[in-house]
Design brief:
The structure is a homodimer.
Chain A (H helix, E strand, L loop, with lengths): L1 E5 L4 H12 L3 E6 L18 E5 L5 H8 L5 E4 L8 H4 L3 H20 L3 E7 L23 H20 L2 E7 L1 E3 L7 H11 L3 E4 L6 E2 L1 E3 H14 L4 E6 L5 E2 H12 L5 E4 L12 E2 L4 H5 L8 H16 L6
Parallel strand pairs in A: 1-2, 1-4, 2-3, 4-5, 5-6, 6-11, 7-10, 8-13, 9-14
Antiparallel strand pairs in A: 9-12
Helix pairs in contact in A: 1-7, 2-4, 4-5, 6-8, 6-10, 8-10
Chain lengths: ~325, ~325
Amino acid sequence: MRALVTGGAGFIGSHLIDRLIGRGDEVVVLDNFSSGHATFLSHHEPSGLLTVVKGDICNPEDVAAAMSLNIDCVFHLAANPDIRLGTRITNTDLNQGTVATYNILEAMRIAGVKQIAFASSSVVYGEDAPLPTPENHGPCMPISLYGASKQAGEGLISSWVGTFGLQAWIFRFANIIGARGTHGVIFDFIHKLKNDPTRLEVLGNGLQEKSYMEVGDCVDAILHVMASTNEPLNLYNLGSHDTASVRRIAEIVVEVTGCHDAKIEYTGGDRGWAGDIPRARLAIEKMLESGFDVSMNSEEAIRHTASVLLEEIGLEETT
Amino acid sequence: MRALVTGGAGFIGSHLIDRLIGRGDEVVVLDNFSSGHATFLSHHEPSGLLTVVKGDICNPEDVAAAMSLNIDCVFHLAANPDIRLGTRITNTDLNQGTVATYNILEAMRIAGVKQIAFASSSVVYGEDAPLPTPENHGPCMPISLYGASKQAGEGLISSWVGTFGLQAWIFRFANIIGARGTHGVIFDFIHKLKNDPTRLEVLGNGLQEKSYMEVGDCVDAILHVMASTNEPLNLYNLGSHDTASVRRIAEIVVEVTGCHDAKIEYTGGDRGWAGDIPRARLAIEKMLESGFDVSMNSEEAIRHTASVLLEEIGLEETT
């Protein structure tokens, strides 16, 4: 198989490519390297299975160029990685999420590419959903602009399935964490402690409670579900069995980094920023019924991630 | 109150404005007159309550200009009126639906306008929903590009409520029909009989079965629900109690037009076009519980509409 992975040089994309190339697939990466890194992929150069196209999913010509390379299946992972940015520059998620997903789908239609897997998110459910939230929850009322763009992407894909005969897998991710993370709470905490090992500022009251999934589990789940389902449109939550609080994450990061003197300070309020959802947990029965289970619970994934990100980021310059 | 009505010169918009001006509200219309007509509004000129801004919701400057006129509440009705066009020019609904709705919301944020009512559609539910379909059905998987743009508009509005403190009413419409209709099955049938009173071609097998709501009932329901609800985000299906088949509509239009010799011919297949949903019926318990009920069932609305559209369109040139 020959796969196109948008955002392939990024966090989740590079792990997916490890699996795809590991099983012998050819991979074309489309990435603008805004938050991705060539070093996340350089170990695949000797394989001869990797083609990297530097380009932007917001540019239809770049998308068409990548799509013309005899693609069998698209893994559309690229998006604005900074959910908080949407609040300040309000067309960020519209352009990098919704319109970019349209660009991908239209290029697929023109090139005759028939399969897509899409990285959606638990944030499409919004704030009032029951926990754990099943795939058939409705109405989905996202409260962040990022969430709105993920919902819009799902709808575009669904309409391409219904109108043009595409086959699609939509995955609603829990918080995905692990090696090569380029954003998120653990990444932020380590950078804060690198700047000042005596204090750790936590956005909100720390009682935010969400489900975390290790990135290796995430990409294994994607490939397992795709191999075991064959409907025109397949929708799956991907997450772990439990949750962890931001307070607990702060404690683990302090412990793993060895910054035992760091004072953990909370900015207060029930959420980190406007559009943040304080409590999130996905129902994962559908994923489990497909025959896949995670290898780590939320706290194990957090501890593992803190450890590997500490190694990647380092504390040296400031300690 | 001073309302901005996008698409105010169109079918539903002009009926809404009849009610708003009838109760003494001031109204600003933003319309590009692509399918709207000045004659739909000209009877309000003497009132002094109507301001018409000719402009396009796809143009942020036009939207900002209209939004700067001391608006209290936006009724966002404008959209691509031709659901079938989306299949041929695939960015039609993206631009005239999704991006245009973003333009409206962003202009509201900048101007400090805090209330919006949005015309969404039953087509957001997609094809596999139970009938009648309640508001909390999920997942919503639209099969038309028009449906995808309505879902995206809902998500954008929901995210503006969650992030910027907007208050919103989202209405998922059944098939709305009535005087001043500018598109839709009855409109099409009358035009076909005007061209050739001896035959009536029906797209599909005629067994498509949907719910129809008279436009006067629709705009009354909008204003009733807005007056009786006050959540940050209010979601309501608007429809009637029953359904009618396209076959029955064809018979009624033939009867009302007096083209009794017209042979009704079916193109076959279970739907009119790619992205058409053959069977649709909204659960309207929530609307009924708000204290509003419709004055016409589907067949009464169809017969009324055929009669008034016949008067508006006329058959003269061809008979």
